[in-house]
Each structure stands twice: as C-alpha cells, then as structure tokens.
Amino acid sequence: MRIDLSPTSWGRVIVVTVAGTAFFIGAAFFVDSYNFPSLSPEALLWAKLTDLFLPLILGGSFLFFLMWKMRQLAITQKELTIVAATDSLTAVFNRGAFSMLVEAYLEKARSHAVADTGALLIVDADHFKSINDRLGHDCGDQALKIIANTIKAQLRGADIVGRIGGEEFAVFLPGADASRSWLVAEGIRRRIREIEFSHEGRPCPLRSASAASPSAASRPMPTCSRSRTSISTRRNRMAATR
User: Fold this and answer.
1) Out of 42, 79, 103, 167, which one is annotated catalytic?
2) Shortest CA distance to 102 belongs to which of 178, 158, 182?
3) Quick check: is 167 catalytic?
4) pTM of the full structure
C-alpha cells in the first residue's frame, strides 16, 4: 500500500511528524548518554523518561502543528490555482489555461516525433446575442452552462475543453485522428440540438451545423498559432435560435 505524501495529504503530515519526533527523541538520548554512567539508578530513570516524553510532547506537537498549517497552505494554493485556470461561469478551463495545456502537450508530442498530435474543435454559438437581447443575460449564461456541460459529457478523461471567448469554446483531443474528431464534433452537435432549453415556459432550442477543415481553424487562437500545421481541426458552429 502506497502512502500519499503529496503536500495536501494527511499522510505527509503524519510521516513527517513521526519521523521528526523520533529524530528529536534520538538526539535527546544521544546528548544525555554521556551523563548516563554518572547517574544513580533513580536519576537515570528520570533522565530517560525526560528524554522520551519531552521531545515527544513538545517536538511532536510542534511538528504536527507546522505540517498541518503547511497542508492548509498547500490546499489553499491548489484551490487558487484551480480558480485562476477555470472560467467562473462554465467551470471549464479559461482561454489562458487551455492554451497553456495545449501548447505543453504539443511541445511534448513534437519532442517525441508523434505523427498524430491531436485535433482541435471550435464550438461557436452563432447569433447568441439574440438570446441575451430577447431573454436576458441570465438566460444566456444558463445556455452557456448547458452547452459547456454537454461538451464535457462527450469527452474522454484526457480531452481538454476551455472557454476561449464570450460564446466560443475549444476542445483539444490528444492523439485523435480525423475520424474520431469528426465523431466527437458530430456528437457534440447532436447532443446540443437535443437540449430542451426554455425560459419561463417558452422553448428556445439550440440548433447546430457542422463544417470541417483538414488543417487549422479559420479563427485559431493566437496563442495556438504555432500549432496550426500539427493538428487537425473540426469546426462546430452552434446556431442558437428561438
């Protein structure tokens, strides 16, 4: 059984506390060992008890408190990192985090001379402004959340999805060929078309159309422009109409 020693785990707190306390006890016995021969039996017993319990109580308590606070800081830092990389409305990666992850994957793929680096899908809600104008921004935000959740439901664990614009999403499929990227794009289009979206009892269906390009998207992200020739692309335009 492997113990989790990550900065956010209790395993790290316990292991460091136990190991550090044992070190303190050993150091106390080592230092006092030079005085042990000159002590009476009763004094020797008290000296050994002091060398055992004093580091155990003081050192153990100090190490546990220190590691507990460090764990809390690690958890807070992890949460802040997630917040900084996540779009607050749709709970997918924001543009910066998405671009960084895609670029990192492509750099790794190029270093290993991988032929099929992956596919980039652009999901764009055309005429989305009409929903905001007719039904309000709250309704538009709800539609974006539904679209984001629908996209995530069609992806594998290694796939990456991010919101790169107001109503524009990007999906990166690591290692996907043209066939799989088409299937994913078509699945997203079909699922969004099947959404029963309404506001105050008035239906507002999300209909979609799909087009494909063998190389880069007609509107790629600037931060991904260096990867235009190394990825295949499927563009999935989502037309939001009443």
Assistant:
1) 167
2) 158
3) yes
4) 0.65
Nearest to 218, CA basis, from 204, 207, 233: 233
Gap between the Cα atoms of 171 and 183, Å rounded: 13
110 vs 26, 119, 181, CA distance in Å? 52, 15, 20
Looking at 150-231, which runs of residues are DSSP E strands? 160-163, 168-174, 198-199, 202-203, 206-213
Q: What count of other Cβ atoms lies within 10 Å of the Cβ of residue 153?
A: 10
Above 90 in pLDDT, residue 191? no
Between CA 112 and CA 39 the distance in angstroms is 68
Assess contact for 175 and 118: CB atoms under 8 A: yes
The span from the CA of 125 to the CA of 105, in Å, is: 27
Handedness of CA 59, 60, 66, 70 (dihedral sign): positive
